[in-house]
Design goal:
- It is a single chain.
- This protein is of the alpha/beta class and 435 residues long.
- It has 12 helices and 21 strands.
- The chain has a 9-stranded mixed sheet, sandwiched between helices. Strands 10-11-12-15 form a 4-stranded antiparallel sheet.
- The chain is globular and about 70 Å long.
- The structure holds adenosine-5'-diphosphate (ADP).
- The site of adenosine-5'-diphosphate has 17 residues, from strand 7 and strand 12.
- The site of adenosine-5'-diphosphate (ADP) has 17 residues, from strand 7 and strand 12.
Length: 435
C-alpha cells in the first residue's frame, strides 16, 4: 500500500478535478501576488476564469530558467520574506544561481512528496538511512533528510564526499539505505572494492538515486555491485527539489506527484503540446505551492508521459526515465545524440568500466565526438593490441547501433575524475559561438 493512498490511488477523474481546482487557485494566486505573472497574463488577456479544463493550461505562457535569473533572488516570490522559512538554490553552472524559497506549507508539501518517494522504495521506520547527497543549498541533502525523518527512519547525514568514511559508516552503523547521485553510488561501490569491503555482504538493501540522468544499464550495474535495489527520485529546485516523481518496486517508470504538479510534454521546437506516449520536453505547473509557484516551467528534460494502472494501485501518470536534457543533446553527423545513449551502449561492453566522458570538438563544419572510457584492469595487463581491439569494438558497437562514427579512447585506469555529486559527462571543446 502506498504512503498516501488517498492521493496516490485517487481515481483519475477525481484527480483531474482536484488538479483543475488547484490550477485555478494557483493562477488566481500568482496573478494577484507576482508582478511577473500579473503582467504576462494581462498582456495575454488571461484570467483564472479562462481555465475551464486541464487542457486550457496550454493557453498559459511558459516560464524559463532565464526568467528566474532575471528575477533573482526573490522577484518571483509571492509572499513577503518573513513568511519564507527556507531558501535553497541550484548550482547554477552558468551565471547566477536560481533560488527556491519555501513557506512552511511548501516545506510540508515537499516532505509529503519525499515521504511518498521513499515509502515507494520500500523504506520503513526501522531503517538506518545514510544520506550521501550534498547538504546545503542543493535540495538533495535536506529534501531526502526530511522525507526519511517523516518516515521515522534513523537518518545519518553523511553528506557527499569522504568516500572511505562513507564505507566505514555503512559497515559500522549497518546502514540499510543509501541516498546519493547514481554516479556517486558507483564511486562508493568502486572504493569499497578497492578497500576489499564487499557491500553485497553488508545489510545495505536499497538506494534511492537521482539528480542526474542515468540509464537502466547503470541501474543494473549499481544493483549488482552493491547487492541492492536501486530506486529513483526525480525533481528540480524550481519545483521543490527531489520528490516530483519516483519509481516503485516494479521499477517501471516514475510516478509524478500529480496532486502537486501538472505535467505536460511539448515539442521542444514548436512548443506545441504532444499527446501521451510521445517524447518531448517536460513542462510542469505547480498546483499547490505558495512561495514560488511555477507556471508551465520548461525543464529541458526529455521524456514521455503515459498512464496505466500502476503498482499497488497507483493512478498517477508516469514518465520514462529522463533520456537527457535538450541542452546536452549533441548533433553528430546529423544524428541527435544524448549522452545517455552512449552510456547505454558502453554498459553493454563487458571489457570496460562504467566511467566515461564525452568530448565534443569541431572538425571543419562538423561536430566530432570522442568517447573516453576506462577499461577493466585485465585489459591494461593484456597490452597495447588488446587495448586497440577494444577501442575498435566500442566504435563498431556505437556505429552499428546509432550510425555515427566516433573516436574511442581507452584511457588509463582512474583517468576520469570520480563523481561525488552530479557527474560531468560532456566536455565541450567547440568555440562558444558554434555550440
Ligand atoms: P541544477 O539545474 O543546478 O543541476 P537541480 O538540482 O535543480 O539543479 O537540477 C534539476 C535537474 O536535474 C533536472 O531538471 C534534471 O535535468 C536533473 N535530474 C534530477 N533528477 C533526475 C533523474 N532522476 N534523472 C535524470 N535527471 C534528473
Amino acid at each position: 500500500m502506498p504512503w498516501n493512498d488517498k492521493f496516490e490511488c485517487m481515481p483519475v477523474e477525481e484527480l483531474k478535478k482536484f488538479q483543475l481546482q488547484k490550477l485555478k487557485e494557483t493562477i488566481a494566486w500568482v496573478s494577484e501576488k507576482i508582478p511577473f505573472y500579473k503582467n504576462k497574463f494581462r498582456e495575454m488577456r488571461i484570467t483564472a476564469e479562462d481555465i475551464k479544463s486541464l487542457e486550457d493550461v496550454a493557453k498559459l505562457p511558459f516560464t524559463v530558467k532565464t526568467d528566474l535569473r532575471d528575477n533573482y533572488p526573490f522577484g518571483l516570490c509571492a509572499v513577503p520574506l518573513e513568511e519564507v522559512v527556507r531558501v535553497h538554490a541550484s548550482s547554477g553552472t552558468t551565471g547566477k544561481p536560481i533560488t527556491g524559497p519555501y513557506t512552511q506549507e511548501d516545506l510540508d508539501q515537499w516532505i509529503e512528496c519525499m515521504a511518498r518517494t521513499l515509502y515507494a522504495a520500500g523504506i520503513r521506520k526501522e531503517d538506518v538511512v545514510q544520506n550521501a547527497y550534498g547538504h546545503g543549498l542543493f535540495t538533495g541533502g535536506l529534501g531526502f533528510h526530511q522525507g526519511a525523518a517523516a518516515l521515522g527512519c534513523t537518518v545519518v547525514p553523511t553528506g557527499a564526499g569522504m568516500t572511505e568514511r562513507q564505507i566505514t559508516i555503512m559497515q559500522d552503523f549497518k546502514s540499510d539505505v543509501l541516498f546519493a547521485t547514481p554516479s556517486y553510488a558507483l564511486t562508493i561501490a568502486e572504493r569499497a572494492e578497492e578497500m576489499k569491503v564487499d557491500i553485497r555482504k553488508l545489510p545495505l538493501r536499497v538506494g534511492v538515486f537521482g539528480a542526474e540522468p542515468w540509464t537502466e544499464g547503470m541501474r543494473q550495474e549499481i544493483e549488482e555491485r552493491m547487492g541492492i535495489k536501486a530506486q529513483e527520485a526525480f525533481g528540480l529546485t524550481e519545483l521543490c527539489g527531489p520528490g516530483v516523481a519516483y519509481d516503485a518496486a516494479d521499477q517501471n517508470g516514475l510516478y509524478i506527484n500529480e496532486d502537486h504538479f501538472l505535467a505536460e510534454v511539448v515539442d521542444p521546437q514548436t512548443l506545441e503540446p504532444l499527446p501521451e506516449g510521445e517524447k518531448g520536453e517536460l513542462i510542469f505547473t505547480a498546483l499547490q505551492r505558495r512561495a514560488m509557484p511555477m507556471i508551465r516551467y520548461r525543464t529541458k528534460d526529455i521524456t514521455r508521459l503515459w498512464r496505466e494502472p500502476g503498482h499497488e494501485g497507483r493512478t498517477f501518470i508516469r514518465m520514462d526515465k529522463i533520456y537527457g536534457r535538450s541542452d546536452d543533446m549533441l548533433i553528430i553527423s546529423g544524428v541527435n545524440v544524448f549522452p545517455s545513449q552512449i552510456e547505454a551502449l558502453l554498459l553493454e561492453i563487458e571489457e570496460v568500466e562504467p566511467q566515461y566522458q564525452l568530448v565534443v570538438s569541431k572538425k571543419g563544419y562538423l561536430d566530432h565526438l570522442s568517447v573516453r572510457v576506462e577499461g577493466k584492469p585485465e585489459i591494461y595487463e593484456a597490452g597495447e593490441d588488446r587495448r586497440h581491439e577494444i577501442e575498435g569494438k566500442i566504435a563498431g558497437h556505437i556505429k552499428g547501433n546509432m550510425g555515427i562514427g566516433v573516436n574511442v579512447e581507452l584511457v588509463d585506469a582512474k583517468a576520469i575524475a570520480r563523481s561525488e555529486g552530479k557527474a560531468v559527462r560532456v566536455i565541450d571543446e567547440r568555440p562558444k559561438q558554434e555550440r
